[in-house]
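FAQ: What does the model actually see?

It sees only this:
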Amino acid sequence: MALEKTSIAIVVIRGFSNSLFAVDIALKHTYVKVLAIEADQAKGNLNIIFNGELSQLRELKYQLKRECSERNIQLTVSVIPKISSGIIEMLGSSYV
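And it is asked to produce this:
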């Protein structure tokens, strides 16, 4: 039986170089997929949406918090478990 990738994580981080650092850490330490990177024009933040298994997204949260705290990078990570696959498909297809 295949494992379901029905969870997402939303990372809010300030700055383009910091967002590249976050994506680099995510892809090096976990098995997740980047669904989207959106700019928040009003606050200057970037929202990065990841898709994967719940355990991998929790590991992503841990790794990002650890690596970013060492470099004084402020970020927020929200993990949303068991989201509808239709929403994930919509997110993935709207940013291609």
